[in-house]
């Protein structure tokens, strides 16, 4: 009789540990997914900034009179 009780107690402990591990794995998965999304957003922002920088460095039309900043006195 005690063997059955010991086995059921051990089984219950294992089931509880397994449930805790499943929760932990799900939480870690959520963190990794959030980090992936953040990295993709940063990658896109970096690409946009690189394009903007490249277009600023391209030779284009010279600034017109309306683009000039007035002198400060």
Fill in the keyword field for this structure.
single chain, about 70 residues, mainly alpha
The amount of beta strand, in percent, is under 5%
State the distance separating the first and last CA atoms: 99 Å
CA-based gyration radius? 31 Å
H-E string: H
Q: Average pLDDT, to the nearest integer?
A: 89
Low-confidence stretches: none
Structural class: mainly alpha
How many beta strands in the DSSP annotation? 0
Helix content bin:
over 70%
Counting copies of identical and different chains, the oligomeric state is: single chain
Describe the global form.
rod-shaped
- Quickly count the helices: 1
Give an overview of the whole structure.
The structure is a single chain. This protein has one helix at 2-57. The chain is mainly α. The protein has a domain at 22-54.
